[in-house]
Amino acid sequence: MRRAVAPLLAVTVAMVLADSAVVTLALPDILRHLDTTVTGVAWVLISFNLVLALVAVPTALGFSRARPQLLSAVGIAVFAASSALCAVAPSIGVLIGARCVQAVGGALALVGCLELLVALYGERRGLATWVTAGVIGTATGPVAGGLLTEAISWQAIFVVQVPVAVLAVPAALAVPDVPLPPPDRHRPALRPNLTLALLSAALTAALFLLVLLLVDGWQRSPATAAITVSVVPLAALAARPIARLFRPPHAVEVAVGCFLVAGGLVGLALLPSAHLAWTVAPQALVGLGLGLTVDQLTSQAMHLRLPRVEHAGWTIGARHLGVVVGLAILTPVFTADLQDAQVPAQEAITALVLDAPLPAQDKVELARSLGDALVDQQGQVPDLHDAFAATTFAPDDQAAADQLEADLGEQLERAATRAFRDSFLVGAGLAVLALLTVVAPPWRRRP
What is the pLDDT of residue 225? Predict the structure, then answer.
């Protein structure tokens, strides 16, 4: 029973938490396919995290009145059904509504799987499995979403979740003898949950904004972006073995992790060029910080506190509220910076076109096509390839046109990199705030 059921429950935990960011690389495709706005497509990401943050604690309270196996199975079934609805959503409104329902089912599944894993593995190992699965899911969500979007479609992100969830429903019901939570109650652990929320807000810059920079700013494919950001989950997995070598105190480990996340985000803010290799070291720092902090903070927030599911709900709520706050803070910053960068970028494009060794008639035709592209894609980093494809160049001038297109691409990449700089620095500031909550003196004296 334990060998067959427990891994499936752990995969379910990872899958639900991966959904907080799994659609990040699919957002441009969703925008085009459902013919919506940038604000509308952003709510595909925001709605799941917001609803999960709001319902995590209330759903956990329900586990004191019903069998954990039943509520877990219901939550997983709701998650499966809403995932299927997401895959066939005909409009952005239906997709956002399905994501909200998906979050409710996910909340039930998350807190329920904790109780079931503890029943199968015991307190210590069950909690560790639940926490580790959550960290892996959070870190690998964008990677999985990007690969599925590139290989199949954005709908495949939700389709693949359905069979896993369907298999997990009978697995949850098959777990025997899960006692109801004890009546004892402890207050939520304020400091680790606050640190977890601030750190989650900071990690949003790495897990969300970096993906946008790669896909929308540097015009990389979703698959290329997914492979690039795989550095974060790989580094997160390496963090625990490294920590075991040095055996630092828990507070020191969390403080170092917050510092690494802040340093990695500063590194992303100061990228010298749009070459993907420059992102590897900063991502590694962020991944190491993620691996050193999230599991430790979750364990601290739940240590010796009853009922266990209620405090698990608080940690889930803190993490996803942090994601929403991070999106709310960072999105206006980078959109405003993109807007501010538009005029200098247009001036640079004009200068490059005027200086290009092309006939005047070709320059006029190309300038008209480029102007239309800039107007149509206002508020985002434009893709100028179609403008060049719509312009007919003489064979002798094609090499000069190709060089001009490459120069314009480099100019736009530099502009996009600068436009995201302030957002990454704000994310680093959030990580520093998380660090301050760790190193601050005790908020009250123990009796």
Answer: 85
